[in-house]
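Hi everyone, sorry if this is the wrong subforum. Our group has a chain we'd like a structural model of before ordering constructs, and none of us has done structure prediction before. Sequence below.
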Amino acid sequence: MGTFLLAGALVLTGCTSKDSGTPLGVGDKPAGDTGPAPKAKIVADPGVDAKDVPVLKPIRISVTDGQLTDVSVTNADGKAVKGEVAADKLSWANSEHLGYGKTYTYSAKAMGSDNKPVELKGTFTTMNPAKQARATVNPIDNATVGVGMPISVKFQEGFAPKDKAAVEKALKVETTPKVEGSWAWLSASQVDWRPKEYWPANTKVNVSANLYGVDFGNGYGKSDVTSKFSIGRNQVLKVNTPDHKLLVYRNGSLAATYPSSNGSDADPDRNTPNGTMIVMTREEVGDFSNPKYGYTNVKKKWSLRISNHGEYIHENEENRANIGRNNTSHGCVNLLESDAKALFDTTLLGDPVEVTGAKASMPTTSDVNDWLFSWDKWKSMSALK
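Answer:
Right subforum, don't worry. Here is the predicted structure as C-alpha cells:
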C-alpha cells in the first residue's frame, strides 16, 4: 500500500471538465469505449488545471466504489504537502495551507471494489493577489504587562481592511483563567481586545491572528501572527487632582502615597484630564520641551507616559515647592525625584492610571483609549454584531 503524503501550506482543487465544469473522476468511461469501466472513481477538489485557487480552500481527494492506496500532493520544488487519508481510506485532506501563486501536482491511486486499479493525476495553481497586507500584535511574546493592557492588532501603514468582520473572525484570544472581553475597532486599521474589567492578576494569554489568506475585501492577509504573554500583579495608580497626591493600590490595598502637583486647575487645557489611561512607555529620562509654552530642552527623570495627549507622570524637582500643595503643571503629574524613582521601579506597561477631579476629560484620540469607553459602547464598536 502506498504512502500518503501532504506538505507545505497549500490548497487542492477538484478535477473538472473544461467543457461542462462537472467534476471529472478517474473511472469515467470515455465516449466510444464499449468496454466495462472500472467501478472506482477518484475525484479531486480543486480540480485538474484549476486556476486562482484560494490558499485557504481545503484540498480533498476522494474515491467511490474503492479505497485509496496512494496519495501524493507536492509543490513546484517536489516537497510534499502535509495531509492525511481518512481511516476508511475513502478520502484525503490537507493539513496545511497553500502558498500564494504556486503550482501543485497531485497523484492519487485507488483499488476498486472490482479489484481494478484507477489513478488520477493533475496540477492546479493558487491565486496570487496583488495586495497582501501585514499585521502586528501587541503585547509581544513573553511580555509581562499590567492589568489594564489591551491586545492590539494593527495593519501596515496605509492599509485599512474593508471587511472588518472577516478580520475579527480570524482573531482568537485564549486565557487562563477564562476572561470576558471583546474586540473593538479604534481606527480603520486597528482593532483592540479589552477585558470587561481589568485582567485578573497572573492571567496567561494566547493571541492568534490567523490572517493568512483571509480576504479583506481590498487585499489578502500576508501571514499569521501570534503572541503569548502574561498579566503581572494587580497595580492601579489613582490621582484625584484636588488632593495633590498619587495613590498606588497593589492587589486592592493601598501600597504607597506620593505627594504630587497635577495639571493647572484654572485652565482646562492644562488639566490632568479625567479618565482611565494606562502606562504606555517607561523612560528613564523624558523630553518635555514645549515651544508653545516657551520652554525647550526640558528633560525629566523617571517618566511614565499615560497618553499621546501630552500627559506623563515624572519627577519635577523644579516644582518641589508646589508638589503636594498646588496644581501648577501643564497636565503632567509631578513627583519628587525619590518618589518618581520608587514608582518607576514598581510599574509595568499596562498599569491603569485612574484620574478624577479635573474639569476636563481625556479625549478619546489618545493612542491607547480603550478604557475611556463604557463596556456597552466598547462592544458596539465590534464589526461582529
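For your construct planning: The domain at 235-372 is CATH 2.40.440.10 (L,D-transpeptidase catalytic domain-like). The chain has a mean pLDDT of 90.
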